[in-house]
Amino acid sequence: METIIKVKPSELNIELLQKIKDFIGNRKNIEITISLNEFDPRYNDELDRSIRQAEQEANLISFTMEEFMSYTPKAF
Whole-prediction pTM value? Predict the structure, then answer.
């Protein structure tokens, strides 16, 4: 089951948290995602610049899957 709750920052309060807790009940394996739909235009500029660099193959680092896995933190 998936539910999307859209709220304004001013609506974030203890009552909202209690309603979410009541909704969840005793269920296990709950995942909560917070998504911000507004972003700083500078982020968009940096993303565009990164895309251009990747398209020009500038500042790229390549490695094999084995090399990548050796740099990946191991699970506990």
Answer: 0.41
